[in-house]
Design brief:
five-stranded mixed sheet, about 30% strand, extended, NADH_UbQ_OxRdtase_30kDa_su
């Protein structure tokens, strides 16, 4: 198996060249990190080069690396991770790209390369606020239209900013400030060593 992974890594290095920031083989998987400015071009090469032939995009998601590794992370905050499948060569690949600007996370859309990326990119935009340049219909897909913020960001409050409820007098849904009260945290109880065992 490691020979196949080494072959894939060698093919990636040969085809993508300077577009690659790093290639890693770990736990039976290959991960390639590509530069944001060559992300779209790299996707085309990954699909069209016969030595790679990644015909299918299986998954794409956003990632917020704020406080990653307990604050030891020194890289960009927002990343996009894609999983590709080559049916012809029977191998998989993880592609990672980081948005260069944390305050305006923007990477190229790969929907023209793999149209299955459409829903996934909309989800990453909705939940993380990552923008995809060239996406035809980049709008919220899981939260409602009036939602403010991006709920999967690490700095988004756990209880949210507003809550909604149905008001029977107004006969419509209304938004109001969150009414969740802070709970008292109960300390963890450590039981005796022989608790529940034979006496």
């Amino acid at each position: 198996m490691s020979d196949r992974l080494n072959q894939l890594a060698a093919n990636l290095e040969k085809v993508l060249g300077k577009r690659v920031q790093s290639i890693e083989i770990a736990l039976g998987e290959v991960t390639v990190v590509v530069n944001a400015d060559t992300y779209f071009e790299s996707a085309i090469l990954l699909r069209d080069d016969p030595s790679l032939a990644f015909e299918q995009l299986i998954d794409l998601c956003g990632v917020d690396y704020q406080d990653f590794r307990e604050g030891a992370w020194g890289g960009q905050r927002f990343g996009v991770v894609s999983h590709l499948l080559s049916i012809e060569h029977n191998w998989r690949l993880r592609v990672r790209v980081f948005a260069p600007d944390d305050s305006y996370p923007l990477v190229a859309s790969i929907t023209p390369v793999w149209n299955s990326a459409n829903w996934f990119e909309r989800e990453a935009f909705d939940l993380y606020g990552i923008l995809f340049d060239g996406h035809d219909d980049l709008r919220r897909i899981l939260t409602d239209y009036g939602f403010i913020g991006h709920p999967f960001r690490k700095d988004f409050p756990i209880s949210g900013n507003v809550e909604m409820r149905y008001d029977p007098e107004l006969r419509r849904v209304v938004y109001q400030p969150v009414t969740i009260e802070a709970r008292e945290i109960t300390p963890r109880i450590v039981r005796e060593e022989q608790y529940g065992g034979p006496v």
